[in-house]
Amino acid sequence: MNNSSLSMIFLLLAIAGLVFGVGVVAISRRKARVVPQIQRAAPVEAVSQVATTDVVVEAAEVVAAAPLSVRDRLAKARSSLSGAVGSVLGRSDVNDETWLELEEALLRADVGVRVAQSLLGALQTRVNAKEITTPAQLIDALRSDMATQLVGTSRDLNFEANLGAPNIWLMVGVNGAGKTTSLGKIAAQQIALGRTVLMAAGDTFRAAAGEQLSTWAERSGAQIVRGAEGGDPSSVIFDGVQSAHSRNIDLVLADTAGRLQSNTNLMEELRKVRRVAEKGAGKVTEVLLVIDATTGQNGLQQARQFTEATQVTGVVLTKLDGSAKGGIVFAIETELGIPVKLVGLGETIDDLVVFNPTEFIDALFE
Description:
Blueprint: H1 3-65, H2 70-73, H3 75-89, H4 96-108, H5 113-128, H6 135-150, E1 167-172, H7 179-192, E2 197-201, H8 209-220, E3 223-225, H9 233-246, E4 251-255, H10 264-277, E5 283-292, H11 297-310, E6 314-318, H12 328-336, E7 340-344, E8 352-354, H13 357-365
Parallel strand pairs: 1-4, 1-5, 2-3, 2-4, 5-6, 6-7
Antiparallel strand pairs: 7-8
């Protein structure tokens, strides 16, 4: 091999080496550019995921903590009307089936025969007079008429601030209606308003009633007067009123016996309690009848008998959130003329609230 051939070979090898070196450098630079981009993107993406997760968790916590609305709590009561309302609105006109469905729905809701007939009778007159011509107008009119029967009634708890002696609120009702629990919640609410409260444990016939009321007294900060189990309820309440007067306490909340309302002796005992309560320094300014909403029309019978015995001034309707029989509100107010003042929509103190007719009607129809 001559020298020129060797030179050519060395030249080709040099060129090949140069090309290989340039390629290696180019590839290394490309990798160097790509790798940092991936490394920078990863942390940003991770932070984004963490931040999103935190937002979701916080939102979930807020939703979980949000209190249920009146509409949500009255879901069972609303179900008694919603099916019929939807069916009526789905029709093209108002016919015989319309009236049958509405009457059945009102009776299922425990509005009562008399109230249901009164409501529908007035609407039928307007339909016949062509004042109402469509199903939608009929439902709107029914809703308005039901609201009219409830709106305008005073639901304030009677408290005479200038009495110069304790106001006395008697809590009456059958066992199991939630009488003692309602009394405890009312005590806590009145104390939150700045009033001083004494509880009189007059339900001496029910085992552990005194202990239950004592627990509520501790929770609310109220004072309490108790008597012996099986003792005279009237004397316990009388002692409570006298004690409250001597201590300048504003309000006496008196628990009373609550055996079956058909028991004549119970009604006589309650009459006696009412008389004796006012023999001392205080004055009975409120008699609250506690009714379990789930009892339906039986609650109306209770209201009649307790009213005759104790001159009931207002109703506390408990367990309304767990009942499809919320229509008992209409029966109580229209047939007996007694205002529903407080309703129980749950288990906590804040779930015993002033009855709001507008919210109630809205919750039934929406």
